[in-house]
Each structure stands twice: as structure tokens, then as C-alpha cells.
Amino acid sequence: MVKLTEQNRADYAESVISAVNAGNIQQFRQLFFELHPQDQLDIYLSMTKTQRKSLYEYLSPEEYAEVFEELNIDEQKVFLHELDESYAQDMISYMAADDVADFLGEMHESKASAIIEGLDEEDARDIKELLSYEEETAGAIMTKEFINLRADSPISDVIELLRREGPDAETIYYLYVINERHELVGVVSLRDLITADPGNLVESVMSSRVVSVKTSEDQENVANLFKKYDFLAVPVITEHNKLVGIITVDDILDVMEEEATEDLDEFAASRGATDLTITPFTAAKKRAPWIILLMFFGMVSANIIAQFEETLEAVVLLAGFIPLIMGSAGNAGTQSLAVAVRSLALGSLEKKGLSKMLFREFSTGILLGIICAIVLAVIIPVMHGSFFLAFIVASSLFLSLSLATVIGTVVPLIINKLNLDPAIASGPFITTVNDIVGLIIYFSVATAMLAYL
């Protein structure tokens, strides 16, 4: 396999493309198969439609399947239409069942059914099973390409089995042991098999303490399990402990990226709108509900200001500090929101406890409030010559920051208790709520102190 540097990557790619343009099949195949699969993908994506048409002739369906699997779902939909129907059907038959299921799950039901019908019985059964599980669960992301063993099998037979079936398995570093009822009873590592006496049985080297997940387990919980135990793979079982698949670390990396993107979307109140491939109209449609909701919250802020119109008329200068109060409270609340959502995602909240987290964030808000209040108490009298104005603004900001951190912490915890994604307590939402709270505090303090101004 060729190891490319940034300097020679472009030159090598040009050589591959030149071989395609010249119709030199032998040279193309020699150059192409020396590349890492990701480099093959980069070259494929850089090709024109005419060049890709030649590539389909130069690669067998089995060889092209390895390239097709590396594409994202949207790209797969586009390039599938370039393939001859029989070539496409053969290519799909060589793909891993979980990759096929992910692809077909995004296609029209009639088209997906037609493709499944063209597969052999075993592959079709595996794909239908994967499609039957709810999205974002362990069952939906598991793979069916794995090797299982029997405890009473001689290790020499297992080594021979690995030589025969290992190339088609997703991973062979950990092998799972089942009984006659296909129930998961143990796990054995490849290292233990290789170093053991070939005449011994699998049960002599296997461990019966197996960490597994149910098919209905949320994929984010599975990702946390991988992180906790540093797994390369984990077995997936049914409610009756029957082994039905495995999840490998490469699948979990995709899950982590997906969950991080989803949380970011929720946090920014733009779920599904951060994908640069969607149209402006689609992005606007996805963002509009939150924007409209927050607009109505903004009208609440306007009504609060209107309720204290007399206070503002008495001391017009108070209006100048409204952005300061609102902005500071919103920012502090968003910071606490990030801490709470992150703690829930990593599971650290269970370790440290709710009371400790609330106390820490409230204490942080108080300290931030004291620091900001001291700064304002020094600056405002110098700029505006009023100690009472400084007291109003400083004390309001102190109270706002103290409450904002609590609100930013508590709201996602409440949402999590309702079995909803805590990330929907988005930054803009928390900011707007704390804006309202900050305004109420500010004008209440100002009204109470109005006689001294």
C-alpha cells in the first residue's frame, strides 16, 4: 500500500486519472489498489462522470463495493443512478449488511424492496432484521458479519475457522461464545486463542463475564460504554440473551459524530440546519420554528420594559444598561447550560451528584456576580457620577448572574427527566429566558431605588 504525503498526493492522483483517460486498465488497477481506501475515495470523488463510467468497467462489483461503502448516504444515492442495474445489484450484495441497511433505510420503500428481493436469502433476511429495529438503537447500527464459537470447540478448529471465514468478518479480535440455544455465554480474544494449546477447548480460555447491550439500547449509551471500557467491539443480544450481532468501534465513531452534530444543532436551535448540503429554503424552514418562538419571547421582554415605562421616563439613563444586564445574564446561563448538557452526555452527573453540580454553578454565578458588581461600582460613578445608579446596576447584575447559572443548569435537567434530549434547552432559549429574568430584576431594583436617584 502506498503511503502518500501531501506533496505527492496530487501527482499520484493525476497518474491514476491519466490511466483512466488513456484506457490503460492494467496501469489503473495497479496504481488504484496500492492506495489506502480513503485515498481511493478521494480520487473517485474527483472524477468526472465519464471517468467514473470507465472506472465501473475497470472494477468488479465486489471491488467497487469497498469504495461505495465509504461514501456518505447522499453521495451513494447520487452515484447509484450511474450504475447499470445488474452491476448495482451485484455490488450491493458484496456490501456489509449494516451498510446496506443504512443505505436502504434512506431510500423509497419500493426501491429498497426491489433491491432486497435481488439479494440471496440470507443477506435479505439480515438486512430486513436490521431495518426492523428502531433508528439510533444498538440493533439498527450493529453488523451481522461476525464469528461465533461454541465452548466445546477445539481451539485448533477455531483457528481453521478464522482462516476460512475471518476475511469476511467485521472483526476477529474478540470472538463471542454461544451455547446450543444461541445464547451469549462468553468471550475470547484472538490473542488468547493464538497463545493457547491447540488441543484445548474454547471454554478453557474464554471469559464468562461479558459486557453486552440489548438491541433496544440507545446508540448514545452504547458509545458511552465503548468509552468507559475502551472496547473494540461489543456483542448485541435480544431480551432473551440471544446473540444477534456486534457493534464495532468504527461504527461508534460515526455515532459519536452524529450525536455531537445533533447536540450542536439543538444547542444552537438549528436542528438539521447545519448541513451545508441542504438548500437555503430547507435551512430556513428548519430554523424558523425556533426563531418565531424566540421572537414571541422577545415580545415578553418588550412588554416588561413597557410595564416600567415610568421608571425609564424618570431616569432615562437606565435604558442604557438594559443590553448589559440582558447580555450578561444570557451568557452566564448559556455557559451553565453547556456544563449541564455535557455532564449529562458524559454521565458525570451521576458520579458527582445533582446537589454538588447545582451548588457549584450557583456558587460560580455568585462569584461572577460579585466580580462584575465590583467592576461596575467603580466604573459607573466615574462615567456617570451616580453611586445610586452604580448600586442599582451592580446589584441587579449580581442577582441576575446568580439566578442565570441556576436556570441554565436546572432547565436541561428537567428536560432530561422528561426523557427528552437536554440539548433542546438551546442556547438561544436559555438566553431569552435569562433576558426576561434579568429585566424583571433590574427594573424591580430600579423602581425600589427610584426615590434616591
UniProtKB/TrEMBL annotation:
One term of GO molecular function: metal ion binding
Main localization category: membrane
Subcellular location: Cell membrane; Membrane
Record domain CBS: where: 142-204, 206-264
InterPro entries xrefs: CBS_dom, CBS_dom_sf, Mg_transptr_MgtE_intracell_dom, MgtE_N_sf, MgtE_transporter, SLC41_membr_dom, SLC41_membr_dom_sf
Transmembrane parts of this sequence: 290-308, 314-341, 362-382, 388-415, 427-452
Gene Ontology CC annotations of this record: plasma membrane
Membrane topology type: Multi-pass membrane protein
Record key words, sorted: CBS domain, Cell membrane, Magnesium, Membrane, Metal-binding, Transmembrane, Transmembrane helix, Transport
The keyword Transmembrane helix is annotated on this UniProt entry: yes
Coiled-coil annotated residue ranges, if any: none
Family statement drawn from the similarity comment of this UniProt entry: Belongs to the SLC41A transporter family.
Main function: Acts as a magnesium transporter.
Subunit structure: Homodimer.
Protein name: Magnesium transporter MgtE
Annotated organism of origin: Salipaludibacillus aurantiacus
